[in-house]
Amino acid sequence: TLCPRCGRNAMEAAGRRICLRGALSISTPGARGRGRLPPSRPPSRPSSSSSASSAEDDDDFRRLAAAQSSLLDEASSLTRSLYRRCLRSASVLSCANERDESDFREREEAQRRGLEDFTSSSAGPISMAPPVDRDNELRSRGGYYRSFARENFDGHWDLLGEHGFHIGAEGGSGAATTTMTPRPWREEQVEQFAYLIRTGEESRRYVLRDYGFADPCTSDGWPAELEDRLGRFVVRSSELTRESN
Fold first, then answer.
1. Residue of 179, 181, 193, 189 lying closest to 231 (CA atoms)
2. Taking 60 as the threshold, does the pLDDT of residue 103 lie above it?
3. Once rounded to an integer, what is the mean pLDDT over residues 65-74?
């Protein structure tokens, strides 16, 4: 039988429609009962060279992370060592030396003469200065520098990391809390840390000299130890920053 439109055999056209429907049922994911999905192509496995490269990258990351964690521990140890010596210096400042005793005697004598002059004659100015209190002045001096040191050390605790390190207990003798930072250090972070440590040590010695005290920390070779350890820390940290960035 011929098709009235195209003039082709009607049975041949029907067969083609059936074949077309079957092909669509196989290739259409939503078709139910009209065929199964063709097997999907299995994912390609990574080549051995890419796997080896990934393993090497992981090894490098772990090595750099371990090196930075070790340096962070050293930075924490240096910081706490300097902090303990600042506290020791503040304790020394709580005591009187010969210059303090001379100043106390001079001021006490001036106050005594002013009181005698006031009682013997009503003329002249009246001193409103409080009486000399040696214990209070010395205790306040030591407490001021102890608080000053704590404030400055706490102000930069997060310099080398997202969570950084703390100087520990009030006396600086407790174990430090260190956390590995997920980001590599920058060169300016290392430079600023070294600058703060050196400046802190210089300030500690300057205050002692200004009040006329001998440094109580020279007997254990501290200044030389600090500079040696800090120098090695800067060299190792600089190499790590260049390798990490």
1. 193
2. yes
3. 89
Tokens of 138: 């010395």
**Using CB atoms within 10 A of its CB, is residue 94 exposed (0-12), middle (13-18) or buried (19+)?**
middle
Q: What is the DSSP letter of 136?
A: H
First to last CA, the chain: 81
Q: CB-side exposure of 234: number of CA atoms within 13 Å?
A: 15
Q: What is the mean pLDDT of the chain?
A: 75
**Whole-prediction pTM value?**
0.66
Could you tell me how far CA 173 lies from the centroid of its own chain? 19
pLDDT confidence tier of residue 210, bands split at 50, 70 and 90? very high
Spatial contact of 149 and 92, defined as CB atoms under 8 Å apart = no
Assess contact for 82 and 217: CB atoms under 8 A. no
More confident residue, 69 or 94: 94
**Tokens at 188, concatenated:** 């300016």
Cα 62 versus chain centre, distance:
20
- Of 218, 213, 245, 36, the closest CA to residue 141 belongs to 213
In the beta sheet, which residues pair with residue 165? 178
CB atoms within 10 A of CB 58: 10
Residue 9: DSSP 8-state: B
Q: Are 207 and 145 in contact (CB under 8 A)?
A: yes
* Residue 64 exposed, middle or buried by CB count within 10 Å (0-12, 13-18, 19+): middle
pLDDT value of residue 132: 87
Structure confidence at residue 104 as a pLDDT band (50, 70, 90): very high
pLDDT value at 203 more than 80: yes
